[in-house]
Specification:
Heat Shock Protein 90; two-stranded antiparallel sheet; about 15% strand; alpha+beta; about 350 residues; 2 domains; 5-stranded mixed β-sheet
Length: about 350
C-alpha cells in the first residue's frame, strides 16, 4: 500500500503539469506577498488576480499558440510581431482593468494610483514581454531535453538491436564444425563428447538467456570464453597451440556481453588453418581494479591479406568498435597490429 502511494507521488511529480502548477502557485504567492492591505484584502486580492491572469494569458498564448504556429516553423518575423501584439493587447487590458479598479477609491487615492499606473504602463508591458520570453526559453530548453532523450532512446534501441543481432549470431561455421566434431567423438565413444555437449549447452544458454541486460557479470563472460576455448581445443586438438591466461579476480565487475568473442573467432579462423604449420592462438585477460586488458595473438599465413575491419564470426570488427563507442565512449583503447606473421589485438577497457 505504501509502495503504491510512493509510486503515485513519483508519477505525479514526473508530469510536466505539476511543474506548471508549482510555478503558478509561487508566482501568485509572490504577487500577494508584502502588499499593502490597508485598502482592503478583497480590493488588493482582485487587483493581484488581474495581474496574475494576464501573466497566465501571456504565457500560455505564447506557449500553446504562437510557438506552434510560428516559432517551431521558423517564421521568426511573424512570431516576433505576433508576440508583441499579444503582449501589448493583454498589457493594455491589464491597465484598463486596474485603471477602472483604482476609480473605486477616494478621489485623492484614485488620482495617485491612476497616475502611477499610467507612468508605469511601459514597465507593465516590458514585464509581460519578459515573462512571455521566459516561456519561450523554457519551451526551447524542454524541447532540447526531449530531443536528447529521444535521441538517447533511439541510440539505446539501436545498440540493443546490435547486441541482439550479436547474441543471435551463433557462428554457423563454428556450430557446424562443433556438431561435426561432436558426431565424430560419439562414433569413437570418446570421453570428450559429454564435456563438449556440456560446454556447448552452457554457451547457448548464456547467449540466449543471460545476455538480455546491457551489462553482465564479468565472471559469466569469462566462463563463456572458457567454454568457447574449451570447444576449440577439442576441435583443433592437433592443429596448434591454444592458451588462455587469466590474471586477477572478476569480483563484482560487470561488462557488456560478447565483446571478446569476435576477436577470438577471428584468431581461430586465421590462426589455426591448413595453410599454417605450428599455428597458435594465445590470449590473456588481465583484471585490474576498475579496468581490464585483453590481449590476443594468432599466427597467420604470410600471403593472407589484412583483416582489419573485415567481417569475422558473423559480426565485423567495425561492429564491435561501434558497440564500444555506444556503451563505453572514451573509456576504451583498441589497438590492432598486423605483422607479417601474426595478428595482435590489445584491448583496454575501463569498466567504471
Amino acid at each position: 500500500m505504501n509502495s503504491n502511494i510512493l509510486n503515485n507521488i513519483i508519477s505525479f511529480f514526473k508530469h510536466r503539469y505539476t511543474y506548471h502548477a508549482i510555478l503558478w502557485v509561487l508566482i501568485l504567492f509572490f504577487l500577494l506577498f508584502n502588499q499593502d492591505y490597508s485598502l482592503g484584502i478583497g480590493f488588493v486580492l482582485v487587483n493581484q488576480l488581474i495581474k496574475f491572469s494576464i501573466l497566465v494569458g501571456v504565457f500560455y498564448t505564447n506557449l500553446n499558440y504562437l510557438m506552434s504556429l510560428y516559432f517551431k516553423k521558423k517564421q521568426w518575423l511573424f512570431y516576433a510581431f505576433s508576440l508583441i501584439v499579444i503582449v501589448f493587447s493583454l498589457s493594455a487590458l491589464e491597465i484598463i482593468l486596474l485603471y477602472y479598479r483604482y476609480g473605486m477609491l477616494s478621489s485623492n487615492l484614485s488620482i495617485s494610483f491612476r497616475d502611477d499606473l499610467i507612468a508605469n504602463q511601459w514597465y507593465i508591458f516590458l514585464l509581460n514581454l519578459i515573462f512571455a520570453m521566459v516561456g519561450t526559453m523554457s519551451a526551447i530548453v524542454f524541447d532540447w531535453i526531449a530531443h536528447q532523450r529521444d535521441r538517447q532512446i533511439l541510440e539505446t534501441q539501436k545498440m540493443q538491436s546490435e547486441l541482439n543481432f550479436l547474441r543471435s549470431q551463433v557462428n554457423p561455421h563454428f556450430l557446424f564444425n562443433t556438431l561435426n566434431s561432436l558426431y565424430a567423438l560419439t562414433l569413437k565413444k570418446s570421453d570428450d563428447a559429454p564435456d563438449m555437449v556440456l560446454k556447448l549447452s552452457e554457451m547457448m544458454r548464456y547467449m540466449l538467456y543471460e545476455c538480455n541486460e546491457k551489462l553482465v557479470p564479468l565472471e559469466k563472460e569469462i566462463n563463456y570464453i572458457k567454454n568457447y576455448l574449451g570447444l576449440e581445443k577439442i576441435r583443433n586438438a592437433n592443429k596448434g597451440r591454444i592458451t588462455f591466461e587469466l590474471e586477477g579476480e572478476p569480483r563484482n565487475l560487470q561488462i557488456a556481453p560478447l565483446l571478446f568473442i569476435p576477436y577470438l573467432e577471428n584468431a581461430f579462423k586465421h590462426g589455426l588453418n591448413s595453410q599454417i604449420i605450428d599455428g597458435y592462438m594465445d590470449s590473456v585477460l588481465i583484471i585490474e581494479e576498475e579496468s581490464i586488458i585483453f590481449h590476443v595473438e594468432n599466427s597467420k599465413a604470410p600471403s593472407m591479406p589484412s583483416l582489419s575491419g573485415k567481417k569475422s564470426g558473423g559480426i565485423g570488427l567495425k561492429n564491435v568498435r561501434r558497440r564500444l563507442d555506444l556503451i563505453y565512449p572514451n573509456k576504451y583503447e583498441l589497438i590492432i597490429k598486423d605483422t607479417p606473421n601474426a595478428y595482435i589485438v590489445d584491448f583496454m577497457l575501463q569498466l567504471k
